[in-house]
Every structure is written in structure tokens, then in C-alpha cells.
Amino acid sequence: MADHILGALRRANRAVALILGVALILTVAFILTDVALRGLGLGSLGGSDELSGYVMAAVASWGLAFALLERAHVRIDVMRLKLRDTGRAAMDILAMIVTNGVVLLIAFQCWPVLQKTIERGSRANTPLETPLWIPQGIWFAGWLWFALSATIITLVALSYLLAGRRDALDATIGIGSEVEP
Amino acid sequence: MIWTVAISLLGLMALSIPVGIVLFLLGIGVAQFYSAFPLLRGMGQMIWSSSASSTLIAIPLFVLLGEILVRGGVAERTYAALDKWLSWLPGGLVHANIATSTMFSATSGSSVATAATVATVAMPQAERLNYDPRLFSGAIAAGGTLGIMIPPSINLIVYGFLTETSIPQLFLAGLIPGLLLALAFVVVTALICIVRPALGGPSRSFEWSERMRSLGQLLPIVALFTVVIGSIYAGWATPTESAAIGVAMAAVIAAFGDGLGRRAIIEALEGTIRISAMIMLVIVGAYFLNFAMTSAGLGRQLSDLIGGSGLSPFGTLMLVIALYIVLGFFIETLALMVATIPIIVPIMAGLGYDKVWFGILLIVLVEMALITPPVGLNLFVVQGARKRGSINDVIMGVIPYVFVMALMVAALIALPGLALWLPSAF
Amino acid sequence: EELSVVGSWSNLPLYQQFETVFWNERLPELTDGQMTAQLTSFDQMGIAGADVYRMLGDGVFDVGATVADYTVGDAPELEGLDVPLIATDAAEAQAMVEAARPMVEDIMRDRFGAQVLGIAPYPPQVVFCRGDVASLADLQGKKVRGSGRMTTKLLEALGAEGINIAFSEVPGSLERGVIDCAVTGAGSGYSAGWWEVSDHLLTLPLGGWDPVVIAMNADRYDALTAEQQTMLTSAVAEGLEAPAWQAAQGGLENDIACLTGDASCEGSRASMTVAPASEDDMARAREILVAEVLPDWASRAGGDWAARWNETVGQTVGLTIDR
Ligand code: NA
Ligand code: NA
């Protein structure tokens, strides 16, 4: 059961990462077009810095859950290395629960930003006058997704702990490496 | 407050809670215990404004650029070519690590991205040729830090953004100190390996004909550098836009080489999002901690400490350098810059120090922070690519390079022209 | 009462010379020690200038100050406070701001839950150009770095192209021809060395005056006694607003002296040519404002803001938006 849920979550986050990657490539294409048009003296598409800011916000919210599942968020293992298996598992669970709590709080605190924007019909203070609920909605949904993913991971990890599956626990919330081999 | 935060930071990190989360936790703690105001209500707004930033988009773009070079085989061929040219030196392949880092620094704006790229291609060679792991991995961690000194540089972009200093001027200023650092790394490596040959690997000589043939392998990186930096100085692109141009150029280079398969493209995109999200969590957390600490009076505490010290301008400079070295042990570098620059740079500028020069000095200190334990992102990246042994090997390996950086700080103070000559000449 | 105050840009004279002095020294003096303040600035806190009033409304701090133009994404009607080119000197600008003050007070209450304490000006936002530019008409076809939505619209109406780049990138961009002109305060342009890479100065306030609205969280303000409220507002008027406006008056002449290398500015190496505002330019500007820019704003702001503007600011400056 836990394995299935975790597997589905991994697949979903891989898809999210891929979509974000494609968004980055589209941003590159947009910037290149803008630079080329300007270079040829054909004016400018305008708004490339505004749009890349929105893409950045999406990467910095939707990408977080993927990084968590890949164990990519930096953790210091100086003390953890000195411990035995049980100690390590305890630290991993503690780190995960603290992370989960903080992320839930953040997602909760991000909502009023979108709420105010919707209430006031706020638009970006730029020539594009982008209705801000669109980029902020995407960004807020990313934090919600991170909170949801973190909660699922915590529950799965707890179930591994109770079942005594230490290897699976380590593979889920242990310390991974920052880069792929 | 500063000390409580520093000690809590250490404690929470030792518990192996993710660094970005620790920064948020500390921000929440400061908001609750050091401020009478509901600072948490500003949290969402802080997170939105700091992440919806067109300046920071350069981070994922540079990481993507590096990923494309690795998956397209460009990184590996560059490394092999530099090996042919430098392995005759005492220390052998270690010099190729430094030289490859230097070349990639010229195309990447991030030290983490540079170290990750070089470590990925170099580490397998260390095992094959039976190198001492300490100096070998230390050279990658230290060489990787050049990524933010040799232009382009995300940290210089952030510095320019926070202090309203011209980014192209900063980029020019970083070039000579960056190359000097690289040279000093090579010299120190050679000296160490003359005294203790066991620390390096076998010196290997290659035929000149072979070396000449390998020169072609360096062309892609040279072309990439020319396009990225050239587009900024030709007035075609802003520094951020140049990162996008670099990505496109890297894709073209990869396409002319081995090409990128579907699988490689997916891996490159996933790798980019993984590393960028990891970095962004730390940066956004650092922004929030900065917001909470400033609201609670950090600015006053720091200005009192520095302004109230009654020191001469030179004494103040020494105090600031000492402060950065100590903070650099513990605090993630972008977080460190965001938290301190708005307070410290105006003080230094008020004392008559040039903002461009101070930016370069600061970058050397930040490079040092990247490789000093307990919090040194480059140490973790290299250890992550090694996947064996203890991180202590890497920490032992970077020690000589930390001393080189300290010498560079002294050199910049004695000869400000090292940084300021190029910007004034253009 | 100790107030937590977030001031404007920490690198500009308004903060360094007026806000710092007022909140740290003058406020306790003017209120007989009954009120003190803890001052920081939005840039030091890492807050975007556009977010100051949002956070102020949430009670994250007691008093906040930012350029009103930065926050028009949340309140487009606030653009009416700073219409470019209609006030050419500080006295006119002050009259315009005073006429708009009741409107601004309502907007700050409704949109941000904040009480206006005062409005202080930045210096007039003038135009630095590389190449011969003698009048507004010469801006046609030029690439101009401006800020603020109304300024951008005005530039478009003049046939110029508005370009968005950071302040710190302006000198390099002027030098390399990425832009032809850039708008900022004369003093900022002087201290940032823009005169090294540009040669003509249009002293028209094409970017307006960037008024900074100093406001207090409404709950916090309402909780003060009537006596304290009066004490605070008159202290701000006397200790912050008045000196800032006074400096704005004399400031422009000094800064222009420096930019032209006049002997009255010691140590200046600059030698820019000044193109003063001509009657033709002003007539043209008013024409465009009435025909395009202001009606455009009226539809963006909605409601009866155009009518209110006509009755107040419009009457003071002699302009009427057709509805
Ligand atoms: Na670089
Ligand atoms: Na460190």
C-alpha cells in the first residue's frame, strides 16, 4: 500500500519536474526571440523579465516536492554519521516531521497573498498589466502540492518505521546526494 | 539575537533538518520571540516577492547549461583534453580538475553548478588512476567556487542588484582575481605534490601531437564563453538574458557533438529542477530569516557593532572580513549575502571603499564560505558525487585552498587594482 | 508609544536626510518624548517596494512609507496622485499633492487599511539623454528607460519606446546604445555618474515626482487617543513633510548646477547641456495627457475616480478628463 502511494507520488512529481523543465525551455526561447528582435531593430516582445519571474516562482514552489522525494534538499550529516541505524532513523523521522510542519505553515501563510490579489483584482504594475491571480495561483498551488507531498511522505515513512523496513525508510527520507552520479 | 540565532542554527542543522527549513524555522522563532509584531503575516508576501524574481531565473538556466554539457559529453571531452596538457605537473590530474573548473566557471554563474559538473566527470578518473581522494576532491570543491568569481556569476548579479552596482562592471572586476586564484591553486597543488608526492597522482606526459589534437575539444567551451560574455558587452543582452543565450548555445554544441537523446534531455531537465529547487528553498528561507531579523532590529545590532566599534576605516574593514569568515562557516552563502549586504555595504561605501572592489572582496570570502565546514555547499556537492568515504576527506583536501583564498583577500586589499583595473580600462 | 517604522529606499536622500532624522530625533522632541520609533527601510528588510502597504495593512509594522507609484498594481486609482509633466516646480507639485490628499486618504483606508500621515516628494524625475535632445518631440523613436505605468503610457503616446532596466544598468546601457534616454531624479543621476555617459538633460518632470506616502496601520491609528493622533500627524507635517518639500524646491537647481558643471557646485566635472521646459513642450504634454493618458487611467481606475480627480487635482492644475 505505502509502496504504491509513494510510487504514484514519485511518478507525479517526475511529471511536474518535466513540465517545469519545459517551461524553462520556453522561457529560454522567449528571451532569445526578444534579444533577436531587439538586435535586428524590430522592437521588443516586452515583458520577458516579468514572465521569467513568474516561471521562477513556479519552479521555486512546484519543484520543491520533487527535490524532497529525490532527497536533494541539503542536510548536514556530521552528527548523523556518528550514529547507528536506530539513531539515524530517528533523526530522519524528526527532520521529516519538522519539515512537514514548516511546509504546512508556509502553505497556510501563502494563501492570504492570493486572497488579497483576488479581492482587489490586482494587476502587475507593468505594461503587460498581468492579472496577478494567474501567476500567484500557480505559485500557491505549488506550495499546496509541496505540503500535500510532504504529508504523504511523512505518513509513508512512519509506516516503514512501524513495519521495521529500515532500508525503505532510508531510501525515502535518508540523506541522498546533491548530484546524480 | 545574533548569537542565539547562530547557536540555534548550528543545533538545528546538526539534527540534520534540511538547511532551507532551518532558515524558515529560525525566521519563525525570531518573529515569535524577538518581535512584538505579527511578522508571520508577512511570510507569504516575502516568499512570493523573493521567488518571483527575473534575476534569480539565472540559477536554473546556468544549472541547465551545465546539465546539457555533461549529458552531451562536452564536459568529459574538455576534461580529457585539459588532462593531456596539465598532467605533467607534480600532482597530475588534480591540475586538470582546477583547469576544468576554471573553464566551466567562465560559462556557469554558479559555484554549485560548476562543482557538480566537474565532480561528475572527474570522480571516476580518481578511482581508475588510484589518486589520494583528499587533494583530488578538495581541488574540485575549491576550483568549483571560481564559478561565482569568473564571470558570469549569479552572486555578483545578486550583489549588483542589492547594492545598485553595475553588473557588467562587477563581471569585469572579477576576471583577474578569478584567474589569479586559479593560477594560485595550480601553484599550491604543485608545491604540495613536490613535497609530498603521495598526495597527488602519477605525472603523465603526452606527446605534443596528441596535445595539439586535443585542442579542438576545448573549442566548444571557448565558443560558449565568447557568446555568453560577448552578448553582455556587445549590448545585445542583459546578464540574465545571457544565461538563456548560453543554454541555447550549449544545446547547439551538444547537437553537433554526440547529440542528446530523449532520455538525456529528460535527465537534464529533472537534474535542473532538482538542483534549482534545492538552492531556491535555501534562498527563500534566507530571505524570510533576513526579513524577520531586520524587523527585530538586526540592522541596528550590526550597525552598532560595526559603526560603534570606533575603529578606523581599515580597522572596520578587518572587522567586517573577520565577521564574514566566521559567519561563512555557518551560513549558506546566498543567505549570507542577502542578509548582510544591505547593512554592511552602505557602511563600507560611507567609509570610502569602492563598491565594485568590495563586491569582489566579498566574493572571495563567499568562495571561502562555500568550502568551510560545517556549512559548505561545495563540500556536500563533491561528497555527493563521490558516493564513498567520509566528507572529512573533502574537508581535509580543501584546507590548502582556503589559505590561498585568505592570501587573495590580502592581495586585494594591498592592490585594489587587481579588481578595479579592468572596469576602469573599459 | 514606540512605533515600528519602515522607511523608503535607504540609499536616497529622503531616507538618509529626512526620515532618519525625523523618526530617530524629531519625533520624540515634537511629542515631548511620548512617541519614539524604531526605523528600518523596506530594501533592508528585503521587502519589495510594492508590498509595503499590503504588509502595513496586515499590521506587520506600524508605519510604512513607499513610492505610491509602486503600489498601483493593487490600487490603480492611486496613479492619479502623480501625473507626470503637469507640475514643473516643487510648489506646483505640492499643490497637486495637497489637492489629491483626500483622495489618497480614502484609497489608503479602503485598499490597505491604513491612515495617511503625510506625503513627501522625491526630486522631480527628469530625463538624461545621450545625443541631441532639445524638446519632448525629440523623444520620438528613442528608447527610454522610465518607471511607472503612466510615464510608460506617456512615452508611448510621444512615439518613444519604454524600456524596463534596473537603475544600476543604466550607465552601461546608455553607453552601449541599449537605451537613448533614462528618467530619474537629477541628484540620483549626478551621484550615480549618469553624466559621464549622457550629454543632454531635459528638466521636464517626465517621471513625475514619485511622491512617497507615509501611512500608519488603521487599527493602530484608531486605537490612539484623538490627542495622540493630532500630535503624530502634526509632527509628521512639521518634522518630515515640510523639510522634505523645502529641500525639493532648492534641490533641483543645485543638482542642475552640478550636472552642468556650474561653478556653484564644487568639484563637479560634469558638463551636460540643459534643455529647459518650453511652452510648446508643456502644451503638447497637456494635450497628450488629456487626449490619451488620463482617459486611459480613468478606465483603469473605474468608479468615479475621474470625476473626483477633475474636482480636486484637475481644478488645481487646470485640466479636465473627458468622460
Ligand atoms: Na562564472
Ligand atoms: Na562554510
UniProtKB/TrEMBL annotation, chain A:
- Classify the protein's membrane topology as the record does: Multi-pass membrane protein
This protein's species is: Paracoccus tibetensis
Q: Which UniProt keywords apply?
A: Cell inner membrane, Cell membrane, Membrane, Transmembrane, Transmembrane helix, Transport
The leader peptide range reads none
Functionally, this protein is described as follows: Part of the tripartite ATP-independent periplasmic (TRAP) transport system.
Tell me the GO molecular function terms: transmembrane transporter activity
Q: Where are the transmembrane segments?
A: 12-31, 51-69, 90-114, 138-163
The name this protein carries in UniProt is TRAP transporter small permease protein
Tripartite ATP-independent periplasmic transporters DctQ component domain: residues covered: 28-150
The text of the family note is: Belongs to the TRAP transporter small permease family.
Q: One GO term of the cellular component aspect?
A: plasma membrane
The record's PANTHER family line, in alphabetical order, gives: 2,3-DIKETO-L-GULONATE TRAP TRANSPORTER SMALL PERMEASE PROTEIN YIAM (PTHR35011), TRAP TRANSPORTER SMALL PERMEASE PROTEIN (PTHR35011:SF10)
Pfam families annotated for this entry?
DctQ
Automatic annotation (TrEMBL), chain B:
Q: Which residues span the membrane?
A: 6-34, 55-74, 135-158, 170-195, 215-236, 242-261, 273-293, 305-327, 334-351, 357-382, 394-422
Keyword set, alphabetical order: Cell inner membrane, Cell membrane, Membrane, Transmembrane, Transmembrane helix, Transport
Asked whether the UniProt record includes Transmembrane among its keywords, one would answer yes
Which domain of life does the UniProt lineage start with?
Bacteria
Stretches assigned to the TRAP C4-dicarboxylate transport system permease DctM subunit domain: 7-417
Compartments where found? Cell inner membrane
Q: Which GO terms describe its molecular function?
A: transmembrane transporter activity
Q: Into which family does the record put it?
A: Belongs to the TRAP transporter large permease family.
Q: What does this protein do?
A: Part of the tripartite ATP-independent periplasmic (TRAP) transport system.
Quaternary structure annotation from Swiss-Prot or TrEMBL? The complex comprises the extracytoplasmic solute receptor protein and the two transmembrane proteins.
Record-linked NCBIfam families: dctM (TIGR00786)
Protein name stated in the entry: TRAP transporter large permease protein
Q: Which organism is it from?
A: Paracoccus tibetensis
